[in-house]
Amino acid sequence: MANDPVTDPTQASATDPLVVFTPSGKRGRFPVGTPVLTAARQLGVDLDSVCGGRGICSKCQITPSYGEFSKHGVSVSDDALSEWNKVEQRYKDKRGLIDGRRLGCQATVQGDVVIDVPPESQVHRQVVRKRAEAREVTMNPSTRLYYVEVEEPDMHKPTGDMERLIEALDSQWGLKGVQTDLHILQCLQPALRKGNWKVTVAVHLGDASQSPKIMHIWPGYYEGSVYGLAVDLGSTTIAAHLCDLKTGQVVASSGIMNPQIRFGEDLMSRVSYSMMNKGGDQEMTAAVREGMNALFTQIAAEAEIDKALIVDAVFVCNPVMHHLFLGIDPFELGQAPFALATSNALSLRAIELNLNIHPAARVYLLPCIAGHVGADAAAVALSEAPDKSEDLVLVVDVGTNAEILLGNKEKVLACSSPTGPAFEGAQISSGQRAAPGAIERVEINPETKEPRFRVIGSDVWSDEEGFAQSIATTGITGICGSGIIEAIAEMRMAGVLDASGLIGSAEQTGTARCIQDGRTNAYMLWEGSAEGGPTITVTNPDIRAIQMAKAALYSGARLLMDKFGVEKVDRVVLAGAFGAHISAKHAMVLGMIPDCELDKVTSAGNAAGTGARIALLNLEARGEIEETVRNIEKIETAVEPRFQEHFVNASAIPNSAEPFPILGTVVTLPQVNFNSGGGDAAEDGGRRRRRRRG
Length: 694
Description:
Layout: E1 18-22, E2 27-29, H1 36-43, E3 61-65, E4 67-69, E5 74-76, H2 86-95, E6 102-103, E7 113-116, E8 143-149, H3 161-173, H4 182-194, E9 198-204, E10 213-219, E11 227-233, E12 237-244, E13 250-257, H5 267-276, H6 280-303, E14 310-317, H7 319-326, E15 346-349, E16 362-365, H8 375-384, E17 393-397, E18 402-407, E19 412-417, E20 438-444, E21 451-455, H9 467-470, E22 478-479, H10 481-494, H11 506-509, E23 514-517, E24 520-527, E25 535-539, H12 540-564, E26 571-575, H13 584-590, E27 601-605, H14 607-617, H15 619-631, E28 633-634, H16 641-650, H17 661-664
Parallel strand pairs: 1-7, 11-14, 14-16, 17-26, 19-28, 20-22, 26-27
Antiparallel strand pairs: 1-2, 3-6, 3-7, 4-5, 8-9, 9-10, 11-12, 12-13, 15-16, 17-18, 18-19, 20-21, 23-24, 24-25
Helix pairs in contact: 5-6, 8-14, 8-15, 10-13, 12-16, 14-15
């Protein structure tokens, strides 16, 4: 670990403990005894504190993680932080502190450690941009309200109150075979008598394997509603939409970071953690359920409803998240043949998953398509319906693990591609999650090479009047995924980046914004050090990280095209929270997606979340997607020999083998090659040429 940054050479050495912060990925070495809050501040980690480190405000809460972390190259022992102290105990006694949490101002570094900064401890909390898309859905929910008049008890007809309620549901509503649980029996008689033998009941209609069941009971006529949750459980974020099951309206949407990030940013890191740490899978299961419950509490508070009124939930997730959420060790998903414990849809009860909603609430998980193509891809298929398309559509759900669908009415193919977290701003030198202050849009003048940009939280461009005032509260803190995509594409179009991914020097490009960065060059987007802010650059390692991510994405799409026997697609749909914020032109310049007419590249927003919402509000849609998934042909990229060939070609910007003729009618990419030491034309489409030494 000798190459890890030393934050202050006068205080730390390469033998001092390594501190890794998640979700930012920032790391550094610090002397034993350094407070975690101090380490966070020196690294520029977004950790809040307003009391000056006296243990009063509790804003600096952190969660240390212990065990083997192959992703970060560290082994964290139980004594990696100082012992629990009196200040922390006093705070916990007075205000409460979640088990496992520490105060960053009190805990000091004693050894190598991985530290998670939870969302509530972040000054600039992430903007979880998985919003609910406007979509008309045919209402046919699994749980409905029924008002009934129940026959009063009679000495000559000795049947119980429940039996007469069930008989009323049959005679007045045609509901056959209705059952109930103990909690309804416990409140049934008071409700019947208070309502003068008239009650409203919420009944889950059941399915092929389960009978209808009474979920809740109110005396008299209940004018309110019951609710359901459509949950998109992603590797990086968890987004939930709270829906009124009477009207279908989305009454609240909210999201949080997936707390499993502290165990690894990508899926294979989490599988590795469970392999290397006994009980690691159970840790991650507990973490994601805890995060889920915090989200449900938050969203119910926003909607001002009782969580006990949430009686139904639909979940979509990738296979690793699927297994960890269910409490299944994902070991088999980490090695060929990537066997799922089950690929079928599941109908469970919330209590089985320790979810803090209605105790009898039902939980439906959409089916998985294959070992690395999960229920989230199934939800995208339900939302975007490629199997009903007349033309050939490529649907790409862009995320830490990209799910890709290609098809039409003839057939649908699917695969997943491990893009990693670079698109989320991770592994990028100035990268960060999408939060106020993050650069999200970039333009570079091809003549002057000067940039202008916009940050999240402001609608004003950096070269426009009023920009400074518009960012007064947020500042400029870094660059998020959509920003780095646009920055690199703009650099390519402006001629400061060549097709192979090399940034030119100041002499080669004619701009002082290209600065020396070790043995390579970097492009300076923003110099904020004079005002105490960060210097934001795009470096060659940043370019490499994005090249690897976009090459994986393109290769998956190209492999499906090979299997379909086509050289082009009719249209492209970008799905996912990140996909909704990508410019079609910049994505194509980068070579993320196949060559296509720009007006045929559209965004579906959070299509997985939309699919979950459709399945929540329409019982028939559940059967429909189960049938669709059975007919989707799954392609496993890991065993396809051409995947690597496509990956190598797609590492160039936009591609070293594919001509991209349609893109060529929209933009002209400068033919520069900075590998040869000059600005001469590159005739090989992006392959590097080395001078022979003789």
